[in-house]
Amino acid sequence: METEKSRRSVTILHNGMIVTMDPQDRVFKNGAIVVDGDKIIAIDQSALILREFAGPDVEIIDLHGRILLPGFINTHVHTSQQLARGIADDVDLMTWLHKRIWPYESNMTEEDSYISTLLCGIELIHSGVTCFAEAGGQHVSGMARAVELLGLRACLVQSTMDSGQGLPEKWGVQSTDDCIQQSQKQLYKKHHNTADGRIRIWLGIRQIMNATDRLLLETRDTAKELKTGIHMHVAEIPYENEFVMNTREVDHGTVTYLEKIELLQTNLLAAHSVWVNETEIGFLSRAGVKVSHCPAAAMRMLGFAPIKEMLDVGICVSLGTDGAPSNNRMSIVDEMYLASLINKGREAYLKGTTDPTALPAETVLKMATVNGAKSVLWDNEIGSLEVGKKADMVIVNPFSWSMLPLHDCVSSLVYCMRTENIESVMCNGQWIMKDRNILKVNEGEVFSLAKQASSELLKRAGITIPSRMNVL
């Protein structure tokens, strides 16, 4: 029996299937978990937990056979792009970036970023996410305000760019000093470890094509000084590698150059990492770099990332959705399903024969939980259900047409579960969604604010979406 004797008021969730994702991969068929404040203090069979902890001052919740598992961790999402959902569908990457996304982002206000993050956060919570890694956007203060209100956990970053072509005039080219001082150090001082410790500030580099060597090196050193992480888009498209070879005098691309300047570190979260060769996979592995795999966004614009090869050499690979204009769906549930199928299909394509064992369900579930926690450098507190860790949990109701019959719990969570099966979400010991109702904000009010803000933002940015059909 795992217990903590010094307990105050507690909540017991019992009579459920507890998928712990702990180092022993324990699943309690009729298990219970005890939450005291923001922490888990006991996990065991229901009968033992009730005998030890039940009392007149204890809240007891009967799960009635539902599944309880750690909150999902989305390791790559642009929350400030949520108001841009649908503005850049079916266009090439450069049009996507230069004609749609950058004009959109450069016209954002802090209030826009706040509303966009609220809207994105609602969707994240409905898909069982309790923690996310912001991929880089505008107005971190607006993001932080929304995250604090929603009750989520997050690693927030400001996009930093100090060079490159195609940047909007409104932005101009920010100096390296401004990138380091304003976008990194000042934001860290203002927001790091706020919202009851749920917000951490990371350093963000948008991409190597918009970063001078000085920005790369000083970001590396500043992250070490502040003991925080770096979030960067890495090796997204072939042109990126060509650009690096032409401007940095290396024989391959981004990963090769980052290895040369010693930016590949255990605190680097490399998003996408699609166009990497075998040597570069070795660089990532030896340096302990974490990789965020975004299956839907990769299939839409980037290509097949060598995920199985990365996992085979011990790289910590997690899952992300990317932003709404890259994916349209902020559902980590969908990404789990896609990750397994896409990588099975890739194996079949490369080898000329099918391999249904590639990326099995248990591996994918770890990518969304344990590996996600390691990727955001928070695995000492989240990612699994263990005594002493934070109470970040999701209740899944499997009793629906989408998941029944329930022969294999882990398999069903990856291959059968829909967002609609996510019933309740707890973060830091607080319910942020219960019975599919978001508790901290009024969803209808956020929807109304988002519609108005998005319309006004697109007008300011001069973005028009051409009609695909004869709209009357």
The count of DSSP E runs of length 2 or more, i.e. the number of strands, is 18
Radius of gyration, rounded?
A: 22 Å
Indicate the overall shape. Answer: globular
> CATH topology of the largest domain, anyone?
TIM Barrel
Mean pLDDT, nearest integer? 93
Output the CATH class name of the largest domain. Alpha Beta
Any idea what the CATH superfamily of the largest domain is called?
Metal-dependent hydrolases
InterPro entries: Amidohydro-rel, Metal-dep_hydrolase_composite, Metal_Hydrolase, MTA/SAH_deaminase
Pfam family, one: Amidohydro_1
GO molecular function: hydrolase activity, acting on carbon-nitrogen (but not peptide) bonds
Keywords: Hydrolase
Could you explain how this protein is built, in words?
- It holds the Pfam family Amidohydro_1.
- GO terms for molecular function: hydrolase activity, acting on carbon-nitrogen (but not peptide) bonds.
- Keywords: Hydrolase.
- This is Amidohydrolase 1.
- InterPro entries: Amidohydro-rel, Metal-dep_hydrolase_composite, Metal_Hydrolase, MTA/SAH_deaminase.
- With 472 residues, this protein is an alpha/beta fold.
- The protein has two domains: 113 residues, Roll (Urease, subunit C, domain 1), CATH 2.30.40.10; 305 residues, TIM Barrel (Alpha-Beta Barrel), CATH 3.20.20.140.
- It is 39% helix and 19% strand.
- Strands 1, 2, 3, 4, 5, 15, 16, 17 and 18 form a nine-stranded mixed β-sheet that branches. It has a five-stranded parallel β-sheet with strand order 10-11-12-13-14.
- Helix 3 crosses helix 17.
- The protein is globular and about 65 Å long.
- The N terminus is likely disordered.
